[in-house]
Amino acid sequence: MLLKIPEYLFWMFFWNTFTDAAKYPVVLWHGMGDTCCFPFSVGSITNLLKTKLNNTYVKSLEIGGNIVTDYESGFFIHPNKQVEYVCQELAKDKKLTGGYNAIGFSQGGQFLRAVAQRCPKPAMKVLISLGGQHQGVFGLPKCPSLKLHTCEYIRRLLNYAAYEEWTQQFSVQATYWHDPFQEDKYEAHSTFLADINNEVFSNGLYADNLKKLDKFVMVKFLNDTIVQPLESQWFQFYKANQDREILPLESSKVYTTFYVAETERYNNSNNRSKSLYLINPRRN
């Protein structure tokens, strides 16, 4: 997900509204087809946060320690390896020992949720997921890449071999590919998403660690052209064996497993006491 600065001027207000922004450092995780530091994308967001938050420490995650590996990680480095690497990097950073707030862009949203669930120290205080695919995707219509043929190859691969062992190890997107017509195969062979969603077996630590968040904010972009279904950004997904009707969050298995708090659909009210927020601004 490549970002544009004007779209995120709003998020400066939003960030201050939902977090004690000046108190904690900020950790960012970019999306597919992006890097930590592109000056026209997350790099600009990093600088904007520093400027507007009185030089608050901002750590934009760079997977592998260089920009080339970081870019490739969005497509080819298994999320489990990335999450393990990030957990180690966060644990080593003394500026984060008192806790931090986190913003995940696109797939960075579910990757940071995995960090919150698997690595509770240092403590993540607030997680804001901007367009994350928390129930996976079943379609990749406009995949962002510097090379168009890369996207076309990934689409074909996922359609025919998403749950093959070699595909799961080779393709990041395969690890959160969620086929509603093959739920059993998804749960049995998804090597990332089914695990962090407690669909393989119920991991009590995942649920307990997620509940430690002060707030978990999920933003759904109504005009998103990458994520299918859009409702995955709100932890919702298709009912089984079809790809039209969406199962409400509160009725889903994952909601009962990860119950955080009652949900509030944010509508510019002043009632922000609950810990799980579902938000749907339009992206132009």
Automatic annotation (TrEMBL):
One of its GO terms (cellular component) is lysosome. The keyword Disulfide bond applies. It catalyses: S-hexadecanoyl-L-cysteinyl-[protein] + H2O = L-cysteinyl-[protein] + hexadecanoate + H(+). Belongs to the palmitoyl-protein thioesterase family. Keywords: Disulfide bond, Glycoprotein, Hydrolase, Signal. This is Palmitoyl-protein thioesterase 1. Pfam families: Palm_thioest. Its EC number is 3.1.2.22. Residues 1-21 form the signal peptide. One of its GO terms (molecular function) is palmitoyl-(protein) hydrolase activity.
